[in-house]
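Field reference: "sequence" (input) and "structure" (output). Example, Mannitol dehydrogenase:
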Amino acid sequence: MPSDQTSRATTTKRLSGEAAQTLPASVATPSYDRSRVVPGIVHLGVGAFHRAHQAAYVDDCLAAGETGWGIVGVSLRSADTRDALSPQDGLYTLAIRSSGEEKLRIIGSIGALLVAPEDPDAVLTVLTDPRTRIVTLTITEKAYLRSASGGLDTAHPDIVHDLANPQTPKTAHGFLTEALARRQAVGTPPFTVLCCDNLPANGATLHRLLIEFARLRDAELASQIADQVAFPSSMVDRIVPATTDADRARIAVELGVEDAWPVMTEPFCQWVIEDNFPGGRPAWEQFGVTMVDDVRPFEDMKLRLLNGSHSAIAYLGLLSGHATVDRAFADPAIRAFVDALWAEAIPTLPKNAGLDTASYTAELAKRFSNTALAHRTAQIANDGSQKLPQRIVASAIERLRAGASPAHLMLVVAAWIAACEARGKSLPEAHFTDPLDTSMATIRDRRLSATETVNAVFDLAGFAKSAPERQRLMELTIVHLEQLQRGGPAAAFAALDI
């Protein structure tokens, strides 16, 4: 979130539509007339990743002359983004950083920002606007409110609230369902729902969860959503570290004006989308987006090679005293471990899908080595219980079913447990967070053996809950956790001959 120090920046003029006309020539600014752009996309979860990724692609389309795809950004929880960007006419700086240079670009595709808890009716109004033809989401894995079994957590207080109060929802499920019901009632065609979060088969997953939620409201409504609403899956990829006060100060000097919330990112950017948009879509493919019939092979490669290794770097990096990804990846032992992790995960990817894993991992190594990003390991470490099932555990199960060992994969799970245990000891108490933190702390405070801890954590998180391979996964995790508790990452690596 923006720091209070922003108000004490050396510059006094704020970024705005007017100020954008006076920026240095080296800064790319919107080349289109923003007053002619009408909203066609509502985005739920308007955080830094959306602003570095989907909003930039839409900005390209607007610059090419499309006018019907402006974005209305909706924050489901915090007012921070709205408070930072509304005084700037929705403009912000995208700082694209590599080890050798930084390029600044002003993004203009977000035309309005809403805060759902303050005015849920305003959010429902834009969702029911006939001009809204696509709703995109980056709300993070935990906000889909899944139970340990993968279904909707019907006991979650926000789900209970939304079912009882459909006019004033709190969750994405509640907003989408109520908006679709209202559109249906007045004959407005449904919007397309495009999930951009790191969920397996994210479109199909959201489709299933939303129908489950809608069925609790009205069986006929659930049937209409199932039959009439498109939920294409997508795969997104761009590293977006948290913005720091130093970033804000540097950007202010380069712009000559203050930007309350610039976004830092890398040059690499990828978006793969299943092409199923009955109401139309921007011409994203003109700007590097890959439109496909089936996104699953690309999604699996990203989840298991990028996201899986990111989690490994985060937890092993934290346990090794490395604050950022580039420093952790420069550690020879961690680098060797990541190579071995990739070697385990690659055989689990779809065959005959045209995936070039050698080029992909070479690109990942270059990205992880980017010293300009300063991507914090603690940031990546958040929400491990929600991320590890698709990033790590799914690959490990497939390894076992193929008769191979997932030893390196399961060290990542053990490192997550060890890093959770280290908070309040070798790591600050709230260094990273997880939806299961309260229960994890209870397990930690009981001072259980490694075997008892792993059993309790697997039960709590629902890891491999119904898989026959669950016991073997736990056995491997126990061995790794014992090594980590005894001698840290060095002992765990030595046991793996790294």
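The two ends are 39 Å apart (CA to CA).
Residues 128 and 186 are 10 Å apart (CA to CA).
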